[in-house]
């Protein structure tokens, strides 16, 4: 019965949280050396199983490409580990001697990890690594359609962590997730933070749970090919990115915007790289497959190959077709090619110069990608900087495949599979989330100046006058010291008695 499954799922969630809390109470006392050894063991184990986990994910979900999911798992393990390996997360992590401030790391506690169907194993690996690096425990709620592969990724990380010295239960999961169990996890009194990657409904639920939460929004990434770009190279990069894991990364390009004077060159390059350019009649058929109910994406096309989607639309295309491309002029929720498609389908727009291109990018982002990512191909530094200043996005990627650049695989951005959209997209951060987002920083601060506190009734305090007075006193001290030093000549070895005499003389001058 469904009720039995719901109850079992709730009980499994509560048991996992209880064990995680107990484990984290022990784990928070570990040294930096112990933590780093555990995190490295997890990364090594996950990297070793990257291909096997990718195969499990494709078999279970039916989404994506095994070889590409393998790369995602490698980025989520090795690249993420390398990006956080040297980060201090235990005890004193930074000292600012000039400000007399000492920063001390403190873990959050138990984290609820919400995992999407599009990137299940890589997200579980990544979140496990950054959670434990900051001395937290984590409990996963997988997407029901990706539960087995997500749990297997979490289990591999848990076993490696325990073998390296972590307490049992430091990584937990809901084996058979339900919506009630997921919502219960997010609201559990012993959960201290929610780390949510998934659909907009789950992200909204995370933010409304009453807990601190990191949630990430959708992409709908525009890619602008500006007139100075190396067009052939730009198109190859776009196709590599858009077809990577059949377009399931939220940072993959959704609409191409090309300057008019390179339009034909760009279309020719797409054809030469296996893209199938739809006729008007074919475009209408694909529109009905993208969005049978206008404004909503058909989940059946997510992560599917271009040829499969064409067949769903009743269109015959070459088997080796890399992606489906259609020319578009309109933008709106009722325009299927202009929304986020999470599959190898691209809209193609033509504009007259970067100002028009910038305006069109903003309109596309407003459909659901505000705060996420803009992809840009140009050799004009000023255009790149101008668009970066103008557009409401957190990542502006130049001359690189967007899907890989956004997660830090081909750029200097932090390696991450959870990409913040800032307040543009209703998120608390615009960063690529990593270990330092999962710990508190306590600050030990020493006094650096004295302030004269006026007595009640003495009038309105004049801070400016107080500053002048303090400055005058400092100048008097400097003058007195200069006078004393002038009397004793060049400074050589000075004994304690001489120092005491000097201090007395300075005080007498004041």
Automatic annotation (TrEMBL):
Pfam family, one: Aldedh
KW Repressor (keyword) present: no
Example of a GO MF term: oxidoreductase activity, acting on the aldehyde or oxo group of donors, NAD or NADP as acceptor
Keyword annotations: Oxidoreductase
Keyword Oxidoreductase: yes
CDD domains, per the entry: ALDH_F20_ACDH
InterPro entries documented for this protein: Acetaldehyde_DH_acetylating, Ald_DH/histidinol_DH, Ald_DH_C, Ald_DH_N, Aldehyde_DH_dom
Domain Aldehyde dehydrogenase: 12-272
Gene3D superfamilies, alphabetized: Aldehyde Dehydrogenase, Chain A, domain 1, Aldehyde Dehydrogenase, Chain A, domain 2
NCBIfam families in UniProt: EutH_ACDH
Protein name per the record: Acetaldehyde dehydrogenase
Taxonomic source organism: Aneurinibacillus aneurinilyticus ATCC 12856
